[in-house]
Specification:
This protein is α/β, with parallel strands linked by helices. It contains four helices and five strands; from the N terminus they run ββαβαβααβ. Helix 1 runs parallel beside helix 2.
Length: 101
């Protein structure tokens, strides 16, 4: 998993690429824990994510909880992953937007 980010005030944009799986959760969790202070709007770009496992999904839900009332969105989500997130009710919880294909 490769993580890149940009912060402007209370807005954090994150670009992920690779597999979002159990092996990468500790490093990804450390990244989020070190960068969420003061964030009111988090945008996570999934354009480069090839796979999301349940462990990665659990981390996203944990991040969402830590943000409390702040906005969180997942963008550039592939069709198959979008359908999974929609079926589980997560698409509305995080403001998930599909990739233009």
């Amino acid at each position: 998993m490769d993580i890149k980010s940009s912060r402007e005030g209370d807005r954090l944009s994150v670009w992920l690429s690779g597999d979002f799986c159990a092996e990468c959760v500790p490093a990804t969790e450390a990244f989020f824990n070190g960068n969420l202070a003061g964030v009111k709007n988090l945008k996570v770009d999934f354009g480069g994510v090839s796979r999301l496992t349940k462990e990665g999904l659990m981390l996203l839900l944990s991040v969402r909880k830590k943000l409390a009332g702040a906005a969180m969105s997942l963008v550039n989500v592939g069709a198959e992953l979008y359908e999974r997130l929609e079926e589980q009710g997560i698409a509305t919880l995080m403001g998930v937007r599909r990739r233009a294909e």
